[in-house]
Each structure stands twice: as structure tokens, then as C-alpha cells.
Design brief:
Elements: H1 13-16, H2 22-25, H3 41-51, H4 57-69, H5 74-94, H6 105-113, H7 123-147, H8 150-156, H9 173-192, H10 196-226, E1 233-238, E2 245-253, H11 254-259, H12 267-275, E3 287-296, H13 309-313, H14 326-339, H15 365-370, E4 377-379, H16 382-401, H17 405-408, E5 418-423, E6 426-433, E7 442-446, H18 448-465, E8 492-493, E9 496-497, H19 500-510, E10 516-517, E11 523-524, H20 528-542, H21 547-553, E12 586-589, H22 590-594, H23 599-610, E13 621-623, E14 641-643, H24 648-668, H25 671-702, E15 708-709
Parallel strand pairs: 5-12
Antiparallel strand pairs: 1-2, 1-15, 2-3, 3-4, 5-6, 6-7, 8-9, 10-11, 13-14
Helix pairs in contact: 3-4, 3-5, 4-5, 4-7, 5-7, 7-9, 9-20, 10-16, 10-25, 16-18, 16-19, 16-20, 24-25
């Protein structure tokens, strides 16, 4: 099992050698491959930085290698380390333990789980520690038994975590932690469920506003390049009538900024800027803007301006705490907590706008270092535009499909992923991804609007790469072991696929200051998984969709609920719709194919047409579920439907019809039917409001503000 004459290829081998047990370091699998070479980079770096000097280093290294050999998700391995190492460190400190042989689970772990030490630790911390510890202790022992001979087992047993003998039922923290987590999630979900349309609307309009700023910024650069020595160039433009504001900016480059703030730079820097040498040369130049002010056009109300300026002004963009003083950290932590980004009484610094991805919410070093020297708010435009564009697509998918974040990150520009079918002269759309707990792709059905957002992202990426094709990159989020082949993922930038933390930061940036509160007044920020819970809660609690159907829509296997309807049958499936241009899609014109298809295909089409909603028009919009009709074909107000402006007239007809029904049923004394008619009218008006929002967004997409520059 171990061969000491050959060494692993891992770049971390030399760092580990001499620090850990050699036999562990050289463990191989049945094919002769070193287990170390299969360990995820993130896990091994954490081990080297945090654990390598600790008495339990060999125990955890053995666990890491075995987890990797079992081909578990790298995120699972990392979570194990983050859950076990800090708690063992706490126990060794509290009980003054020096070596692993002194560690007694029935004494030390039992005392911790009983709350005899670290009373400030939450129930969930204790629950996670016990769960991860038991999994590692059990799986490591099983692996040794199955993979090694008796002599090898005898040697490696010294590095096994001792098993506990006490009963887990002695503790209530597991149940309490689960109940608390569920309650918190419920409170947060309740806070945002009624506002899913508002969330979509805000994302649309803010993304559109950022697009206008980017266009104006680029036009200002073009003007500056025609007029040498004109910087700073002042420019302004009017927002659409809905906003009714005029925004004022200054365009800078590095030399002009230095020369106009000479008193804040050294003589050497000023001279370099004058000569345009070194970092101030044309090759190293960089354009950025200064937001000066906003003013109302038609009234005396206070102008709203750009929603994100306070993030910059307060200095909480990126990893803001790196060089902050204690007083500054306390002040900013308090502000972030009031916005809902941090945790009350927590000593951790919330970093909600740190993408950890180049080009996304990333500011040029010159801008970051000198932003406080200007009167206005100085920032780079492109990184904010990129964040808004990614955030818009993500929010749309989350709120219309309930997809998980790692399913969203799998969307790529291949015919295997994007599916488009044409039936009855209408396009229907979906993407394919591997859901959690599966190893095969499944279909996620999406709307025409989602397809338009995909095209916006695609155009942005083509512009970024200056190419008609976007590159194939490695997938970098959960389930990476199932997605080893590089693909042209939509969520990528600077030749790297986005991680979940980058996408979450985009969402937070786009929806910043959109405040929601629990009934107790606790601020709630929009999170990807919270949107998934809101989608499900809306479906179950308000639309009364059976839980098993919601599980199918969300691609979940474990219902954890009994007493609900049985799983849906194939004949009850309703297909979803969407759109993407032909160049990146698998495209089938079924109407055309059916004319020359064999009898088998003809029968297949008849089967599709027999299903509820499949490839059929629904009232006022597009159906996005492919399972049992959640409202028994009562499409009005259904959250599995996205309202479409092209079908607005249908909703007006519904309102007219509901008034006639209400009048007739009132005369007949049918009070229940009167209430139904009123509810029908209410739902139609709600959908009309969202349609109006979509129409305004589309109009603003076409709006090109006239950019005025100083002469």
C-alpha cells in the first residue's frame, strides 16, 4: 500500500514532508496513485496554514486523504476540516490537553456537548461538530478495514479519531439547533415572499441604470480621446422619465487625477504624471469616473442618484477590514449589521461585497488608494456593470425556477445545455444541469425573459473577450468532481468560472438597500438559497401546491413530509418555455419534423399535446413548470407562470369578465362565487403591474441618454 521510493507529484509534498507521518504522506490507492495527489487545493492549503503544527495533524491528514479517495465533493472535505479542527483546538485549550492520546471523547467531547465549556457556542456549532466528527471517525475506520491488510491496519489505527461510547440522545442541542435554523429561515422567508416581483423589478431597473452609465462612460472616453488635455471631462445625462433625474460626472485618467490633486501627491509622482512615464504612461493609463451629484428635473424632491454610492463612501467594498483600525472596524461592522449583512454580537467582519474574482466588484488599485482625494464618489464602472449583469440573470432564475446556486453556475453555451424547441410556431426553452444529490443532468424550464438575460450576459462576455466565442473554463463550485470537462460557462470572467461567493456578492450589490424585515424588525438580506425557500413557500403556502410537486419542481428527492399527494404521473407533466438564439442552442422545429416523421414520432407529439400546458398557451404568460399543474389549470396568479407583455390584453379581458361575474353572482346571492370573482380581478391586476414593470424595463433598455460634456 505504501511505496517510499516514489514520491507524490503534489506541489505541497515538500511542505508536508517531515511535518507529518511518512506512511500517511505516501498512501496509495489500488492503482498505485498517491492519495495526496487527489486532494483538493483548498483543503490542503487550509491544512498547511492551520493544522500542520497541531497534535491532531496526522489524524486529520489521514481523514483528508481518505475523503479524497472516496471521491467526495471537495466542499465536503473542506467543511469537515472547518468543523472539526477549531472545536478540537478549543477542547485542547480548555482541558489543557497536550497530545492526542490524552483526548477522551467520553470526558472532553461529552463535556463540550453538554455545555460545560464554551457556553457562548451555539447549539448548531455543537451539532455540526458531533456530526462531522462521527462521520470522519466512522468512515476512516471503515476505509482502513476494507483497503489495508492487518499489519497496515494495526499501524494506522494510532491515527484514528477515538469513537464515542455515550448516546447522542443525551443531548438536545441537535434538535434545538435544527428548530432554530428552521425558524430563522422561516422568519426570513416570510419577510421576502410577498416581494418576489419587487426583487425582480429592482434588479431589472438597476441593471438598466448601470448599463446607461456604462454607455455614457464609454462615450465620454471617446470624446476625451478626440480632445487632448481635456481631462477632467465633465459630463451629464438625463435618466428616463420614470426616474426623472440628471446625473453629473467627471471623467478622469491617472495623470489628470494626480495633476489636479497635486497637493495630495509627492513631487516625484506629480512629475511622473506630467511626463506620463512609468505607471502614468499611456500603456499603463486607466480611465475612471467621479460621481458628482444628481438633481431632480421636474420637482424639488431630493434626488436618489445611484443606489451603490454609500457602499463606496463608507469604504465597505471588497475586503475592507484588511487595513482598518479597531475603531473603524467597529463602526463599519455596526453599519453592515444594520443593513442586515452581519450578525449581531458577532466579532466577525461581514464582507458582503467581496467577489474574490478579478473584474467583478474589483476596483483598480489606483482608484482604491486615492478615491478619498476627490470631492465626489470615485469608482470604476466596468466591474460594477459586470456584477449587475450577472446578478440580474441569477435573480431571475432563482425567483422563477427555485434553482440552487450550483445548478445556476452550470449553465453553459453548448447545445447539450441550452435546449430550444419550436412547437406551434412558438419557442420553448430549458437548460440542463446536475442537481444536488444526482450524477446525471436534469431539465430546468425557463422563460423567454430568462433567455434574453442569457443573451445579455453572452454579449457582455463576447465584448470582454473580444471574440465571437466565449472560452471553455473549468467549473469551480460544488459538484466539481462531476464536471471535470471545461465548458463555455455563462458565469465566467477573466478566463475563470465564478464561484458561489462571487455570484452572491453580485446579488447583494444589485439589491443593496432593498430592505426587508422579519416581524420582529430584524433586517433580512436577499440570499440565493433564501430565494429558493421563498419560491417554495409561495408555492406551498399561498398557491397550495402539494409538497411532492414542489419537490419535483425544485429537483429534490427527500420530502421529509408525509400525508401529501403521491408523485405526479407522466401524463400530468406540463412543459416549460424559454428562448435563446439558434447559435447556442439545440433547436428542433417539431411542426416541420412531424410532417415527415415516422409513426413513432407522431405518437410522441400526440402524447405531448395531451399533457396539461405542454407547448400550449396559458392565460397571461408563460408556464415554467414541467410537472403536475400546481393550480389545476387555474393559471391566473400562479407562481409557476411568468407574465408576458404580449398577452396583456388577456388579463384586461379577465378583469372585464370578473366584473360581469361579480355582478351576476351578487344577484344570485352566491357569496363564495363573488369572492372568487374579486380574487380573479385582484390576481389579474397584480400580474398587470408586473407586466407594466417589464414593459418599462424593455423601454429603458432601448433608451439612449444624450451625453453632454463640458467644452
Amino acid at each position: 500500500m505504501t511505496l517510499l521510493c516514489v514520491k507524490p507529484e503534489s506541489e505541497h509534498y515538500s511542505t508536508l514532508q517531515g511535518k507529518v507521518d511518512d506512511n500517511i504522506l505516501h498512501l496509495q490507492n489500488a492503482r498505485g496513485m498517491f492519495l495526496l495527489d487527489n486532494v483538493n487545493e483548498r483543503s490542503i492549503k487550509y491544512f498547511i496554514n492551520q493544522i500542520i503544527e497541531m497534535p491532531w495533524r496526522n489524524h486529520l491528514l489521514l481523514a483528508i486523504l481518505i475523503q479524497a479517495d472516496r471521491n467526495l465533493d471537495p466542499a465536503t472535505n473542506y467543511l469537515m476540516l472547518k468543523s472539526i479542527h477549531p472545536r478540537i483546538k478549543d477542547l485542547f485549550h480548555f482541558y489543557s490537553i497536550q497530545e492526542m492520546r490524552e483526548f477522551n471523547t467520553d470526558l472532553h467531547m461529552y463535556g463540550y456537548l453538554k455545555g460545560e465549556c464554551y457556553p457562548e457556542h451555539s447549539n448548531n456549532m455543537r451539532r455540526v461538530f458531533l456530526k462531522e466528527y462521527e462521520l470522519v471517525a466512522y468512515n476512516t475506520k471503515i476505509w482502513l478495514t476494507r483497503k489495508l491488510n492487518q499489519d497496515q491496519q494495526a499501524y494506522f489505527e494510532q491515527f484514528l479519531f477515538p469513537m464515542r461510547s455515550f448516546e447522542s440522545k443525551d443531548f438536545s442541542f441537535g434538535k434545538l439547533a435544527k428548530e432554530q435554523a428552521q425558524n430563522n429561515r422561516k422568519y426570513e422567508t416570510d419577510a421576502i415572499v410577498p416581494y418576489l416581483p419587487v426583487i425582480r423589478e429592482t434588479a431589472r431597473f438597476r441593471s438598466s441604470q448601470m448599463n446607461r452609465l456604462r454607455d455614457a462612460f464609454r462615450k465620454a472616453i471617446e470624446e476625451a480621446q478626440k480632445r487632448p488635455n481635456c481631462l477632467p471631462l465633465e459630463f451629464h445625462y438625463d435618466e428616463p422619465e420614470r426616474i426623472g433625474e440628471r446625473l453629473y460626472f467627471r471623467l478622469w485618467d491617472k495623470p489628470s487625477f494626480v495633476l489636479h490633486h497635486q497637493d495630495q501627491f509627492s513631487e516625484t509622482v506629480v512629475q511622473l504624471a506630467e511626463d506620463r512615464k512609468s505607471t502614468y504612461s499611456d500603456d499603463n493609463n486607466h480611465f475612471f469616473v467621479e460621481y458628482v451629484k444628481a438633481e431632480r428635473l421636474d420637482d424639488d424632491e431630493e434626488a436618489g442618484g445611484l443606489w451603490f454610492t454609500e457602499i463606496i463612501q463608507l469604504g465597505v467594498l471588497g475586503n475592507w477590514s484588511q487595513n482598518a483600525s479597531i475603531e473603524e472596524m467597529e463602526r463599519k461592522r455596526t453599519i453592515l449589521n444594520t443593513w442586515g449583512y452581519g450578525e449581531e454580537d458577532s466579532e466577525k467582519n461581514a464582507i458582503p461585497f467581496l467577489s474574490s474574482h478579478k473584474g467583478i466588484l474589483y476596483q483598480h488599485p489606483f482608484v482604491s488608494h486615492h478615491k478619498d482625494k476627490a470631492e465626489g464618489v470615485v469608482f470604476d464602472v466596468e466591474p460594477f456593470y459586470v456584477a449587475c449583469t450577472f446578478g440580474l440573470l441569477a435573480i431571475d432564475v432563482f425567483t422563477t425556477t427555485g434553482a440552487r446556486i450550483n445548478e445556476l453556475l452550470q449553465i453553459n453555451s453548448t447545445k447539450e445545455c441550452i435546449q430550444v424547441k419550436k412547437v406551434k410556431d412558438k419557442h420553448h426553452y430549458s437548460f440542463r444541469a446536475i442537481p444536488k444529490g444526482r450524477d446525471e443532468v436534469e431539465e430546468f424550464y425557463i422563460s423567454k425573459q430568462t433567455m434574453e438575460y442569457l443573451q445579455i450576459v453572452l454579449r457582455m462576455l463576447k465584448d470582454h473577450y473580444q471574440s465571437e466565442k466565449i472560452p471553455s473554463v473549468e467549473y469551480r463550485c460544488n459538484r466539481k468532481h462531476l464536471l471535470s470537462e471545461p465548458k463555455p460557462y455563462y458565469f465566467q470572467y477573466h478566463n475563470k468560472a465564478l464561484k458561489d461567493v462571487a455570484l452572491v456578492s453580485c446579488i447583494r450589490f444589485l439589491l443593496h438597500a432593498l430592505r426587508f424585515e422579519t416581524q420582529e424588525g430584524t433586517p433580512v438580506t436577499v440570499k440565493s438559497h433564501l430565494l429558493r425557500h421563498a419560491f417554495a413557500t409561495e408555492a406551498v403556502q399561498r398557491q397550495k401546491i402539494p409538497i411532492d410537486i414542489v419537490a419535483k419542481i425544485l429537483h429534490q428527492r427527500d420530502l421529509n413530509v408525509t400525508g401529501y399527494y403521491s408523485s405526479p404521473t407522466a401524463t400530468q407533466v406540463a412543459h416549460a418555455v424559454g428562448e435563446l438564439h439558434d447559435a447556442i442552442a439545440s433547436y428542433v422545429d417539431i411542426d416541420e419534423v412531424i410532417l415527415r416523421s415516422p409513426e413513432e414520432l407522431r405518437r410522441e407529439l400526440e402524447e405531448h399535446n395531451s399533457k396539461v400546458g405542454v407547448f400550449n398557451k396559458v392565460l397571461g404568460g408563460t408556464c415554467v413548470t414541467d410537472y403536475v399543474c400546481p393550480t389545476k389549470m387555474a393559471c391566473l396568479g400562479c407562481k409557476a407562470k411568468i407574465p408576458e407583455p404580449e398577452q396583456e390584453h388577456e388579463l384586461h379581458e379577465v378583469i372585464k369578465l370578473s366584473k360581469d361575474m361579480e355582478e351576476r353572482f351578487t344577484k344570485m346571492g352566491l357569496e363564495v362565487e363573488v369572492k372568487k370573482a374579486k380574487e380573479m380581478r385582484k390576481q389579474a391586476r397584480i400580474e398587470l403591474k408586473e407586466i407594466e414593470s417589464i414593459k418599462q424595463y424593455r423601454e429603458e433598455q432601448q433608451y439612449e441618454p444624450i451625453v453632454h460634456t463640458n467644452k
